[in-house]
Amino acid sequence: xxxxxxELTYKLNEISSRLFSISFNNTTDIxxxxxxxxxxxxxxxxxxxxxxxxxxxxxxKQVYYMSMEFLVGTSLKNNLFNLGVEKLFFKxxxxxxxxxxxxxxxxxxAGLGNGGLGRLACCYMDSLTTQNFVATGFSIRYExxxxxxxxxxxxxxxxxxxxxxxxxxxxxxxEDDAVYVSFGGETEEWYENGHFKTKLKxxxxxxxxxxxxxxxxxxxxxxxxxxxxxxxxxDFDMSAFSRGDYLRSLEQNTMAEVISKVLYPADDHTExxxxxxxxxxxxxxxxLQSIVNFHLKKYKTLSNIEEKIAIHINDxxxxxxxxxxxxxxxxxxxxxxxxxxxxxxxILTYTNHTVMSEALEKWSVELFKTELPRIYKITEEINxxxxxxxxxxxxxxxxxxxxxxxxxxxxxxxxxxxxSCCHKINGVxxxxxxxxxxxxxxxxxxxxxxxxxxxxxxxxxxRWLCQxxxxxxxxxxxxxxxxxLTDCNALSELKNHKNNxxxxxxxxxIKQQNKxxxxxxxxxxxxxxxxxxxxxxxxxxxxxxxxxxLLNVLHILYLYIxxxxxxxxxxxxxxxxxxxxxxxxxxxxxxxxxLINSAAELINNSPVTKDLIKVVFLEDYRVSLAEKIxxxxxxxxxxxxxGKEASGTGNMKLMxxxxxxxxxxxxxxxxxxxCVGKNNIYIFGNTEKQVEExxxxxxxxxxxxxKNPYLKQVLNMLxxxxxxxxxxDILDSLxxxxxxxxxxxxxxxxxxSYVLAQEEISRAYENKEKFxxxxxxxxxxxxxxxxxxxxxxxxxxxxxxxx
Length: 803
Ligand code: 26W
What we know:
Layout: H1 5-20, H2 29-57, E1 62-66, E2 70-73, H3 76-83, H4 86-95, H5 100-106, E3 110-112, H6 116-130, E4 135-140, E5 148-152, E6 155-159, H7 164-167, E7 171-173, E8 179-183, E9 186-192, E10 195-201, E11 204-216, E12 223-232, H8 238-242, H9 246-259, H10 274-299, H11 305-308, E13 309-314, H12 321-332, H13 337-347, E14 348-351, E15 362-364, H14 365-371, H15 373-393, H16 398-404, E16 407-408, E17 411-413, H17 414-421, E18 424-427, H18 430-438, H19 442-447, E19 452-454, H20 461-467, H21 470-480, H22 501-526, E20 535-540, H23 549-565, E21 574-579, H24 587-604, E22 613-617, H25 623-629, E23 635-638, H26 650-656, E24 660-663, H27 669-676, E25 682-683, H28 688-696, H29 701-705, H30 709-717, H31 728-735, H32 751-766, H33 768-780, H34 787-798
Helix pairs in contact: 1-2, 1-4, 2-5, 6-34, 10-12, 12-13, 12-15, 14-15, 22-33, 23-24, 23-30
The structure holds ligand 26W.
Ligand 26W binds next to helix 6.
């Protein structure tokens, strides 16, 4: 777009006068923000149409990425960076008395996701666009994204996130392309000219309006979009009104609008809530209708649809795509069952993102049947045919067939629905895929292993390195040239400098600058003064017991106890930084947040620690906060219980910014180890296999507690009163069977080896050159973890796209 300065000024003035009837230089910051975003949005709308038309003309196959979550973060900086116009905007804005940084600060995080899965979806849209694929994301235009977190007296409190207030400016509504989605009622069935016909009666229908959010790629003409559905009342129900059924028509009103009201803030367990099922159906039905309509408009036939589109199911949340696409093909376009099913299976693919049993979605048959009667009938028939097929393969093995069924024990199991139909199924790291194919999906894998594959996650590193860490990125640009901007593997050239003292010193200086910036943020937000010469040890991710933030705190308490007992206990100064949201109803997770804050309160103010250790809990962890923390990290805590974290992506973001991983052999940590080599990472703890052995042979926490007197003291501290609160539930969760088996995530079994790894880090950090080289090797070996690589694997091995 390189646009002359005067032309941009002209456009901004034109939009200012259209929106606010004033010239651009007279706008307030918030007005200026809206003007700039509107300009970008309109430009992208034009570019998107051009790109789309040019690709569709070539009849290219396209992919639709269905996800209940897209954790977008901010857009303004990303779009300007991708379009290569950041400098131009700085200039033109300053000519008008404005600072672009002030407008960046106004850009809200679009928090339409919980964590890893939602952020991954955005990273993939970015890389797909950068590599010129035609890709459309589909999700819901939640009025309220992930809640805002405040810590009040150490306890997490949730507040609504009204992101549309400013974020709306990025959306383009398309009222004319609205579709209708029906819930409840009963099915009516009849035959017409020998054809089976069905329709819903007495159902409630909502109108789904699409809103486009444009997705830019780096240095490309391609622009894609994310389509977000909003549910509204269809049209004023005059018939109900004239019958005097005033209440019913108003009731319909609230029912419709509540569907797209709020993102479910849980990523750890499913509650089987009616509203969530409705959200999922809204997403699937509205998106599939619009996809099929679009295909028919272009090709006038469904005969080739499986060659022209791929539809991806991001975890099981959009699994209703299976029966809904069947419904559209059969009920609306008269395809036979067999024709429809074959097409569905060629079109649909599925990624699993978790093996935690409480996160595997299932719906009670009762609820499913009442809300989605026609979809239930189709699902029943899918299951009937599936069971028949499985009975031939596993005759009389009723237990196995039951386990593999879509419907059993009064539940509809969404993962089996995906497995019963999709032609490609993938896990998100090598270890995770192995666990799927040898564990929970084994019986399906044994029937047809060709359907299963691994695609290790990747990140949009141009956001997470180039935009988030301009100090480092600009330095690498000078040192290595621009190759890494489009090919992440080019970072490996940094290895040539691993013994170059000047480079190591420069990298150290950059890290210190970034740490100073974060220290300033910490001082402003938490009122805590942290030492930038201490190790910045960072654990940022959703709070979950399996991720073991608790292990981290237990170690911090251990350090405190050691220092208290022995003034001469040697310690390398460390600042432990946490960021984490707990799902609102997950009380144990909230108690762990409270414990972190209590530990912070005690340790940050104690003469015992003499400023040697500091603990910081940064509230409201979100994409834009991650962008501040990650460039400043020395140590990346990836300490989940082996076998539980599907992949992790924070580990990759931290690595590419030069943090050294302290982790278990879990998820993508295993691949990080392979890339950096064992000298550039700290691995500790039991392996996945050992974990299984420990658990199956009867895990006894007291074997570990009795061996280590310090551990005993640490546990005692949870309830002794030395902290400003007592945490008996946490102690119980570790030592009794009150909350399931004691310490089910093996914090205590891994404690000793975690302490040793932390000690090793301390020694290494005292040798600046050694630690600096480790950091360099992490940056240099991050190439594999680019989302550019991941999406190419999806494109060629899963979706069968052509470049
Ligand atoms: C409420 C139901 C529910 C269940 C699971 C909501 C959301 C989930 C997600 C699967 C949770 C999630 O975000 N998983 C993470 O996905 C990342 C991207 O693949 C991985 O890197 C993480 O390891 C995984 O925890």
